[in-house]
Amino acid sequence: MAASESDFNLKVVLVSFKQCLNEAEEVQLDHYLAGWRGLVRCVGETSARRQALLATVPGRSRQAALCPEDGGGVPCPEVSAYTPHRFLNSLGAIFSFISKDVATKVQIMEGLCGGPGREHYSTLQSMVAYEVGHKLVDLERRARYPDSGCRTVLRLHRALRWLQLFLEGLRTSPEDASTATLCTESYNASLAAFHPWIVRRAVTVAFCTLPARRAFLEAMNVGPPEQAVEMLSEALPFIERVYSISQKLYAEHALLGLP
Ligand code: 1PX
User: Fold this and answer.
1) Beta-ladder partners of 123
2) Which residues form the Glycolipid transfer protein domain (predicted)?
3) Is residue 149 part of a domain?
4) Is 10's C-beta closer than 6 angstroms to any atom of ligand 1?
5) Is there a domain that residue 122 lies in?
C-alpha cells in the first residue's frame, strides 16, 4: 500500500519505491505506480483536511482564514499549526496542474498494466522489451504512440530525479536554507531540460512561494524535523537505486529522448 487512506505520510510513500526492486533488480511497475499515486494523493487529501480544519475554526470564514501564501493576507495560527497542506496549497493552480499531469500519466500506466497486454507490464524491463520489440514506441514523433508505456514512465522517471534531488537537498541543507533555491536547483538539474521556457518560468515563479524547510520536514508527517531527516537518509538510497536502474535501462535502449 502506498499511503494510508486517511493520512499522508511521506515515509509510507517512499517505502513503495523501496519495494519496487525484485530480486533480479527489476523495477516492478505496481509498486512504482503506487509510489506516484501516494505522492499525488497527498495533494487532494491535504486540501480536504484543510477545508475540514477551517470549518472547525470558530468565527472564521473560509476567506478570512486564508494564510498569506494562499493569497488571503490574514495570518491564521489555528490553521497554520497544521502544516501538511500549507506548502502544497501554496503552489495553487500550478501545483494542481502538475499533480493532474502526474495523475494522468499514472492512469495511462494503469490502463496498460490492467489491459489486454498486461503480462508485459509487470516490470519496467518487460515493458521496454515488449514495446521496443513490437515497435510500439516512436523515437522520432510523439504522435504515433502518444501513450506508450515507455514515454509515459520516462516523464515520471525524470520527475523522480527531481524528487530525489530535492529531498536530498532538504535533508542535507542547513535549517535556514531557502526551499525556493533548493527546489529551483533540483528542477534545473533534472526536469527543466525537458520543459519549454514558459513552463520553466511559471514553475520557477511558483517555487518562490514555498514555505520554509522546517514546514516541509513537518509536512512529511513522520514526527519532528530531525526524524524526517533521518527517514530521508534511510529512504533516499532506494529512490536513487530505482532511478539509476531505470536510467541505465532507458539508455541501453536509446529511449532517453523519447518524444
Ligand atoms: C513532502 C514533499 C512531497 C513532495 C511531493 C511532490 C510530488 C510532485 C511531483 C512532481 C512531478 C512533476 C511531473 C512532471 C512530468 C512532466 O515533465 N510533464 C510534462 C511533460 O509531459 P508530456 O506528456 O507533455 O510530455 C508536462 O508538460 C508538465 C509540465 C508541468 C511542469 C512540472 C514541473 C515540476 C516541477 C517540480 C515539482 C515541484 C513541486 C513542489 C512541491 C512541493
Assistant:
1) 28
2) 86-221
3) yes
4) yes
5) yes
